[in-house]
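WARN retry 2 of 3 for item q-0093 after timeout on previous attempt; input resubmitted unchanged.
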Amino acid sequence: MSYVTVEKLSKSFKGNKIIDNLDFTIEKGEFVTLLGPSGCGKSTLLRCIAGLEQIDGGEICIDGKEVSRLGPRDRGIGMVFQSYALFPNMTVRENIGFGLKMKRVNERERREKVDAMMELVDIADKAEARIQEISGGQQQRVALARALAVEPKILLLDEPLSALDAKIRKSLRLQLRNIQKQLKITTVFVTHDQEEALTMSDRIFVFDKGRISQMGTPADIYSLPQNEFVAGFIGNYNMLTSDDVEEISGARLEGELFAIRPEVISVYGEAPPEKGGVLHLRGIVEDTVVLGSILRCYLDVKNRKIVADMLNREENYFEKGEEVQLLISQKEISRIR
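OK item q-0093 returned
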């Protein structure tokens, strides 16, 4: 039996349906990410699971118990908000212990638990500091420790890294994932950042207008998009119709619409090697952009815009206006419909 079960869940605001007849399950100890653009319903779903929003219909079950009509305190939920919602008049230790105090845990046990949580998130040296005296990254860890201290059945994370700079985000996402694995706590994480979702998740639910457009492992979501929305939202897929493919390559593929990842396109300034099972195209370089270790090449192929990603090496630099040849393995082409 699944640890979390959501059946036929619906939620509207002022007549606008935000979540539409939603069904899914989550296994115990699983890290699931709700990924999608702003306004797609992912944060609303998180608040419904937490009991912060009343649902219009459907059921939410946690650990075999139907909780749809229970208040937030009775659901066994730990939640970290985007704003962290810490108390500025309290120390780090007092913030982390707040939930335990509300549950009337005795002082000795509470102190031991808070000490353990501070060690877990590596913030013990800031125990007596006020919230305004610590950095944004440290505040995020305090909020996480506070949520974990009460030993929740489920940890809900609503874009907790979005307010941090890029370097701190990358560091904390690894720490957060390691803590989740160590505690084996069932976790639902909300983000619109594709890199976060791909690097942190056991499974990803891609949201579009209140529905799950696709769910699967990070590898499946990235490499095998099942529809046009997912292909357009994840990565930088080149979308081509069967007529497009035939006109630019001479090959007729079975299907109507195809998605091609930029990194599977090989670009050559000279004649490419002979290979079977590939599409052979000719194009003109329109621009090249450096993305750290990646070179992104924008190409015109018979009036179709194609994007190719290559390693940032000297031999992969092409001049604007230069004619190049492209090879695409047919095995790397995803049929959308």
